[in-house]
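S., here's the first fold you wanted:
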Amino acid sequence: MKNTNAPHMNRILVLLLGLACGLAVRPARAALTDPAQIQTEAYVNLVQADQSLDAGRMDEALSQYRAARNYYLQLGKDFPGWEPRVIQYRKTYCDNQIADIERRKSGGQPDERPGLRTEPPPAGSQPQDSAPVVAAGRAPERAPEADRAVEINYLKSRIASLEAELAEFESLQDEAETLTAQNNQLRQDIDAANQKLGEKANGEQAVLDGLRADLKAKDDQIQSLQQQIDAKKQLDQALNDMEGKVNELRDQNDRLNKEIKTLDQELDDAEARADKAERQAKQAEARQKDAEQDLQKARADRDGAEKELAAVQRKPIFEKSANEKAKTVAKAAPEAKPAEKAAEKAKAESTPAAAPASRFLATVPPKPIPDGLSAADYVRQLLQEGDNDSALATVQNARKAARTDMNLALIEGIAMIRLQRYSDAAAMLIDLAKNNPRNAEVHATLGAAMMGAGFHAEARETLLMAVKLDKNLPECHYNLAQLYAFIDPIDLKLARKSYKQARDFGLAADPQLEKILNPPVKR
């Protein structure tokens, strides 16, 4: 252990020797962050540069002057408040020395170098923070007394710092020696304990082997029980899964039963509406027959009156009587007009439930179906091109070979609607709707035909049924909007809703309908 009571002077000499060695040999240092250390490094490089220049080693002196100048530049940049006058003076000195050496190396004459003097430290600065400087080109021992005093003060501060570090190091060394002794004692105790444990282990090895055998047997038994428990858990999980699937199937069954009941109810409602429409069609047919009879009677009366008027005109003697009879005939003749209107209305209200044999036939010959196209696709193409007559003739010809094809029947109804044969289309489509009560497109087409034929209430019910079956029918929403907007009972709120849905599905705008639904606000 190092003796801490050595004379103080010896310790100072050792520190001075270490500092001198540090000045002689400068190893590579890490980047410095303390301004005092940076100033010390700059001063050391400056002294070594002066010594190298006095010895004639100009390259070495040039490198050391540059290193010192870099340190002073770092101080001026990072610590601008750190002795700015001294730092600027020494940097200028380094610049002058560097320029002189470069000129001498290029063959010029050396300048008279002024001696490096120490600038007075700023007020309030500590003397030990200032690094000593010497005159360039002279030996350090010939420096002025003031520089030597500054250097001694700096060395004393460094000695004090090193003594503090040395005291701390000695304290740490004492603590390390104490810990080493304790560690050696612990090692001895551990060796003794290990020896005792080895002796005891030799006697208890047999007992330990027996316990290990028992433990292995119990482990095997535990593993067997664990496997049984895992198998039981898997069985319980399988049972729970099966119960969950059974409950799910029961729920699905209940939902299907409810849907079946709902569908049955809707089917019953559709059949009831179909029966009602059929009865209304029969009543309309009866009204049409009565209107035709009244029309024939009115025509006969009109013909008789015309004959009587012609006979009176041939007899000028009875001019007054003829005029009176003409007036009578004129009065009787208008009475035939309501009968004609009734007949025309009866024809417009012709039943949509008429038998298929009485449907409207095409007036043009059918077109041949091109190869690669089905009849339905080709007829739809003709409808898109606006050739409605040819489309009707072609689909009627195609249905001769496919009487049960629902798609062709629906297209035939669309073709008749395009030709404004609304009553004939309704008569055919009502049977198609009976046979396909869940087809939304059939109901939508039937509703359009009834709407064109003037059966507005039935058309509204049929269109609502189509929307209930499929909400993605823009034409159906548009037709409902027209019924709500123009036909009693008028409901503009429902009309706006249906029109908005039709527009949302991409249907083109209707300015006339929008004018009714969104009237301009009066200011």
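And the second, which I think is the more interesting of the pair:
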Amino acid sequence: MSESVDRPTRPTLGRRGFVVGTAATAAGTALTGPLAGTARAAAFGWTDDGTNYVIDTGANLVFKVRKSNGDLSSLVYRGTEYQGYGGMNSHIESGLGSSTVTIRQSGSTILVSVAYGTLRHYYAARSGENNIYVWTNKADTSVSATRFILRVKAGLFLNDEPDSYTYTNSTIEASDVFRKSDGQTRSKHFSKLRVMDYDYVGWSANGVGLWIVRSNHEKASGGPFYRSLLRHQSADGGGLYEILYYGQNQTEAQRFGLQGPYVIALTDGGAPSSSLFPGTLTTSWADSLGISGYVPASGRGRVAGVGITGRNTSYAYTVGLANSAAQYWGSARASDGYFSLSGILPGTYTLTVFKGELAVYTTSVSVSAGGTTTLNSIAIPSSNDPSNAGAIWRINDWNGTPSGFKNADLMTYAHPSDVRAASWTGNVVIGSGSETSAFPCYLWKDVNSGLIVYFRLTAAQAAAAHTLRIGVTTAYANGRPQISVNDWTSAIPSPPTQPNTRSLTNGSYRGNNHTFTYSVPASAWLTDTSQYNLLRINVVSGSGTTSYLSAGTSIDAIDLLA
């Protein structure tokens, strides 16, 4: 059936109940993208089976959308059903409930529109493609819609990755972190990746690839370094996610408006086409579909920077734009710091330059529809980068992450209790050559508070007061460092603003970077230069529980300034 009129349904039914990739990794893979669907005898079009709208893409994909609530109720690729587990469909959040669902065919595009209160949700199919383009417009908090989950039948894509688990594992935290019999930990939260690190997520097995290609996240929150769950796999089935707003370890307020398209893509086992990736995908074919909140390319602008000086070329630099309505980011060119961000909604934004994940420069930028805002070379003041300050000693470098510290890499895909983690205790000696690798990336009140750093000073250094700095990237339960040097003890610092959810135990160190400074008087130092001074770092807080859920914090760098 091919019609160009809306077919609405006003139902009376109620609510129903890893492979990841980047553009770089996809480049060497056979692409099976938007225009690469294999033609079949079936014609492109749709039918109504009484319960669902049934859309045939005219390639190898037939999918169904439930007329009562907008659920994706079937996903058949090459004759095999992939959708669903536990009697549940794929949908926004846990399902919308009774909705108004319409369908329209406009030439080579079929659009299914779902209206639920102030929420608008859309599925689009293109003739000859094995893709479903999805948009979600959340206008306000009246509707809970923080994710789209594609539920996948059990047994089709088995894997044993950090974001997998089975119910034979023992639960070690909440109901979502598990330990295998070999001591390794698993959780759907353990994605390993920041948003900027991936373009798609999914699985490939037996000549079939099933993927969700993420949107540009302009209406999401948390910025380029944010980490959230991407997929899960268990004995009962798997799930692929596009997160619209994720409250775990969140640093920003929720944004509202149209998010998408994100794309459900099926392939012959290879990566999805790079033409579907955020920053590459063009959807001029959707300009006239009437999608609520849709802004075409002509209504967007661009920001370009000539270059960035004052960079530490050992680090990658990222440029971000953010305001209350949207967020964008891109990499600065390693050679000169040139950057270009396109597809920007009109408005005034805070532009932030990040060294690694540490903000070292901010300014205000205005963007107009159809225009390019060109910025002269940005000069990062030397004082903006804490690494430029002269130090008597420094543990790790300042880059906004705990990278380099003990267990830091593991903690993006494992629980701190994982058998692969090195001991969280152990003191550090300045001058040993292992200061950074021996220092734990996280400190907890109930696990390793009281860690000691041993260091010597020259007579001249010991005769003066010095500033000690501790940089953190997030905290749990208001955990923050109080220090003592020999017999001197600092005041308890006030807690900075940090997310109020779990972080250190579910794969994320990303919160708000903050630097604690302590003015240590000359009287605190030992005058015998042959002896070690003892810096003790305690975690203090009146919150938290026990063990790895006691108050804690993630460390960026520690130094004693000259």
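Why I say that: The chain has three domains: 19-148+208-225+243-286, 297-384, 386-561. The first helix runs from residue 23 to 26.

Talk tomorrow,
H.
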